[in-house]
Amino acid sequence: MIRDSSWFSRxxxxxxxxxxxxxxxxxxxxxxxxxxxxxxxxxxATAGFVSFWPIDFTLENYEKVMGSRTFLRxxxxxxxxxxxxxxxxxxxxxxxxxxxxxxxxxxxGRVIFxxxxxxxxxxxxxxxxxxxxxxxxxxxxxxxxxILPNALPIFSMILMMNFFRGVPKELEESAFIxxxxxxxxxxxxxxxxxxxxxxxxxxxxxxNHWNAWFDALIYMTDVANYPMQTYLRTIVVELDLTxxxxxxxxxxxxxxxxxxGAQIIVATVPILVVYxxxxxxxxxxxxxxxxxx
Amino acid sequence: MTLKQYLKRAWPLYVMIIPGIIFVLLFRYYPMYxxxxxxxxxxxxxxxxxxxxxxxxxxxxxxxxxxxxxxxxNTVLIAVVKIVADQVGAIILALLLNEARILFFRRSIQTxxxxxxxxxxxxxxxxxxxxxxxxxxxxxxxxxxxIKPQLFLGSNNxxxxxxxxxxxxxxxxxxxxxxxxxxxxxxxxxxxxxxIDGAGRFRRIxxxxxxxxxxxxxxxxxLSLGDVLEAxxxxxxxxxxxxxxxxxxxxxxxxxxxxxxxxxxSLAGAVGLFKSFISFFLIALSYYLADRFAGYRIL
Lengths: 293, 299
Prior knowledge:
The structure holds two protein chains of two kinds. Chain A is mainly alpha-helical. Chain A has helices spanning about 5-40, 40-45, 60-65, 70-100, 110-120, 125-135, 145, 155-165, 170-175, 180-195, 195-210, 215-220, 230-235, 250-255, 255-290. In chain A, helix 1 (about 5-40) crosses helix 15. The two termini of chain A are about 30 Å apart. Chain B has a single domain, classed as MetI-like fold, CATH 1.10.3720. Chain B is built from 14 helices and no strands. The radius of gyration of chain B is 25 Å and the shape is flat. The two termini of chain B are about 30 Å apart. At the A-B interface, helix 1, helix 4, helix 5, helix 6 and helix 8 of A face helix 1, helix 4, helix 5, helix 6 and helix 8 of B.
């Protein structure tokens, strides 16, 4: 690295570090504030005395939230959704991307299939027709309504296809000479060599399923079927505490704000747990999407 | 090679692609057929095939509504300001991060600024509703300077600004990654050669770093054209209220309310088809421009 020690350059460095620190803290401050509120007692939280440090420290908000049946039920629905939805996404992404990564000679009809998928990515039937399709298939109030409509995320599939195309052709050619089938080639050559891309897309799919809430809002008619984020919406956005599942006598002792804060934090924890991996893979994942040979 | 020989090896490829085709047919193409409700007086009991046709009536009604222009205007205004703010912010942040030479510092800052991108609008919306409330921490803070509490989410003066600023907060860190990746690809010998020729730090940023990421800037500008009607559905649905429909209602939130809350399916279907139709051309054009000017192809 080149050293530049002019006074102007040093002043710039100083300002740059200070600016970046302030900016990063601004990104973080709202979350720290909510965390502090969630750990505070009723009076200071309700009166708005809490800034970035809890006052009258208590864990009771978390105890009540984690003890709420409705909250736990929605948490479990979300976990099931993430597991089922992500497995389905990845299976379909890999199975569809593999044939499409072949040359038109090795996979006749490739061009037609590609356009079939690309057109479906570019043109969208829209919310209302999609809703009625899901309804007419009898999927309302089932897990299927949350994982089937986007079972094959087409853009992710195209990224996977592009990654598969970078796998050296010599490997599969020698496997074919030894009598291997496409199934074996996919399983023993393509998948092991594509683990970085698979990891990135798996994390992306899992985060999307965890964070999704609008689909359940329209496809579930009963709050009992809501996954975590949709359930959270009734409480932190609609401010409706009738579904909170906490004994009203307990609620009297606690602050609504602190309860909502605790729920927001609990819903965020799973993201924080996978965050280090997300960060690592996403940087390579971005290149996967942006750089073509 | 005969067809039989070809299929002997290639048949698994066709089996593999079948599940994907079935799902896309059912959940992408079947709804595309369903856009015909925009030309019908659709009733769910009669379905797509059985509802009576009304021609362009829904569109004529739609274009005569005074809200229509307002909704379209809100959508484009919010989306375009968001795109510009996000891209300019990301370029500046990436350049500043690139100038910060302590690696640990850089990593830590990056870790903090990407985080909001991975949180849902329910979580971020819950946080914003709390801190922007009339007695929330932001109003308390500005109260210290003698400014009266502002309705950041409830007044038409503030709502768009709040949406744009909070969208920036969620997304800018992530957009920065793309530019940082482009910056690391710049050959360091260019900087060294320029330094030997006497170019100072800011001249090098101007003449080497910025031209180095120009292809990325062009690419993202072209691709962002496809987002001109995407003002942020989940965000606005979380943050808005009837008081700010005038400035905050966008196409997507309108389709949701008209179609699924008030059950005027065909009218909402017409709005949705209008958006899908324009978006299709915008996205296709954006991919064309990305290919033409930045050599980017998704296929």
